């Protein structure tokens, strides 16, 4: 069913904008008028946006609106509650469409509902939107549909999404203050070098005196920041563009991820975060009846690192040959030794899902504590760095003054 965006006047005379599904424009007008809403403009949006996405893949990839993780988690939790209360699946989705604030998510839910009404399963309908619903999400929903426990699966999915969102928010909040300090420091330095320093150093230039090397370097740097700052922006933009291009190729992506793992501090944090995602997702998939081999092939796509994903794929091959999961993962020498031990204990005790869940809790807490520790360490480093730069500026200005005093004496 087509999706229409409309602007209209409600019963209080206020202008409202929203989207709705209807058979045609006339049907949409009738629906709005029956709800005491008087349409001003109605246009079909789904097909147009799909056409734009096909024509401008680069722009839509980076600038088109996407469904937030928090919105997906809330929808999943609400849908689980509605189905538990006895709502049919289609009615539950239809009930959630007007409650969703994101226009793009409303379109996704409306199209999903239409696909289910047309005869598709819920999982097949969700699989049409891979940018919104991951392979893990789709496969868990498929497992819930086949076992008749869809509401339980949705509740577990909501738990996973909420935990992932909590971890992401913790990392962001821990890094916000250091990043804010760094940005303010850079702006202050730019102001000093581009506006304050030139006015002071102009006095030395007028005197025709041979200036010390630090002062000459400061003047040259100040001139660059005053007139050539755009070159610095081009270099930074070029670096980011080059990294993005590098990550698109197979060899480039592999080299980038391998380099990231070898960096001190960052490599260990990346590994812990990948292990946390791996164990949380794999444990949940196994709990919901997904086979180990299928679960491993799903999990390799969500760890966020090509090197670790290749290690999981190689482990899946060994598991298919009859090897244990812990032994297969240990061959890559990437997973921490403690995680391998926990997996092997889980396999021997027959409680692999429970052990993976505990392992996820451990590594998620470890990642959070590591990020907080790094952010605490970054603050004095940034302050020290800014102090050294400001001290250099002050010293470079004072040196010619000291030399002038010696000549006068």
Please give the structural blueprint:
Elements: E1 3-9, E2 15-21, H1 25-34, E3 38-44, H2 46-55, H3 57-63, H4 69-84, H5 89-96, H6 103-117, H7 122-126, H8 135-147, H9 150-207, H10 213-227, H11 229-248, H12 250-262, H13 266-287, H14 292-299, H15 306-320, H16 325-330, H17 337-349, H18 352-408
Antiparallel strand pairs: 1-2, 1-3
Helix pairs in contact: 2-3, 4-5, 4-9, 5-6, 8-9, 9-10, 9-13, 9-18, 10-18, 11-12, 12-13, 13-14, 13-18, 14-15, 17-18
How would you portray this structure in words?
The protein has 409 residues and is mainly α. It has 3 domains: 3-63; 69-159, Type II secretion system (T2SS), domain F (Receptor-associated Protein, Up-down Bundle); 160-409, Receptor-associated Protein (Up-down Bundle). 76% of the residues lie in helices and 5% in strands. It contains 18 helices and 3 strands. The protein has helices at residues 25-34, 46-55, 57-63, 69-84, 89-96, 103-117, 122-126, 135-147, 150-207, 213-227, 229-248, 250-262, 266-287, 292-299, 306-320, 325-330, 337-349, 352-408, and strands at residues 3-9, 15-21, 38-44. The protein has a 3-stranded antiparallel beta sheet with strand order 2-1-3. Helix 4 packs antiparallel against helix 9 and helix 11 crosses helix 12 (250-262). The longest helix is centred in the middle third of the chain and has 58 residues, at 150-207. The chain is flat and about 90 Å long.
Keywords for this entry:
409 residues; 3 strands; mainly alpha; single chain; Receptor-associated Protein; 3 domains; three-stranded antiparallel beta sheet; flat
